[in-house]
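Subject: sequence -> structure tokens, single chain

Hey, anyone have a minute? Need the predicted structure for the following. Not urgent.
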Amino acid sequence: MRHSLLASVIIALLVIASLAHAQSENSRGPMMPEIQALWATHEAAQKTVAADRDKKLANLDYIYRLNVDKLKNERAAVGDLDGALAAKAELDRLSAHQALTDAQRKAMNPELGKLRAAYEAALKGYQNEEVRSEAALLQKLLADLEALQTRITTTGDLDKALVVKAQKERIAAEAQGRPVANTPLTPAPVPEPPKVQPSVTLPNVTPNDSERGWIRLFRSNDPKIWNTDTNVSEERFAISLANAPNDAKWFRMKRPDLGGNDCVIIPISFRSLTGGAGTRDYHWTGTGKKMNGHTLLGISRLGAIARDGDAKAVSISPGHPGWGWGISPPGVPNPGPAFAWNCTKQGESKVVDISVKTTGLTGEESKHVLK
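Reply:
Had a minute. Here:
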């Protein structure tokens, strides 16, 4: 299924590496230290690309399974046995790592077929992205070898420069699948694969409260990454809201460092995620608006006042404190960035988990809904 193209790319690159290394050892002795240093850097970059790919594909699988399972439950709820069984069969195929046959694809009902098509479009986009990344790494390696060859040539050590030249030509030739002899110094440009915009995907994998249906959109202490595709670590994660569930009903902010029950929940719609939502008592600010160059992000309580000039007050929406990131002190010409929780200014910015839910709340969760 998805792994065939990725596996071929990885295998090809490993073959290039092994052949290049073997050639240097067999014909010229051990690989010279200068080339070893360049190769170590290249391999480290390859590992970074591979790790990024694995995270993205794992999360893509997670989201697709989530959507298919949701479809199964929806069809079962309205008594559509065939629809529920079709979704279950797709989940079983995924669990067994079975490829989808043409007959199975044609037999899919329109709703399941649409989910599958979006999944495959996103998968293709990730595969193309990796091919481009690997091609860029190869070009950089060849350019570095070319620079090393030139530098050594200027010292007059022509034999050593020839070793670098042979290594570079071999890598370039093997990358193009051509015989090693009479190869150019650099490979022909790699054509860029067609760009495919993922339709249903998250950029990277991160834990979710799956047992309670919460889907994470953000986890960080930096509001600037809100509504971006970011995954540096579990404590610095975000997805663009274009990939958020369009049937979101509930919105939650919580502080992991204060325990799972320290959270605030409000009703919300997909459209309101990037704008504002609320009542006469509270307001959600999610536009990424900046004030004095600082990003505002959070829920403000409209019944509370962040008084102008009060250094202990944080204004998340103009004049109102709450939960999240704002400015302090409010009302002065150059307020600075500040973080607040439960309308109280904190000493430093804390990691906040922002998630949405597409189903109803549990009894315990309902206790945290702002009134």
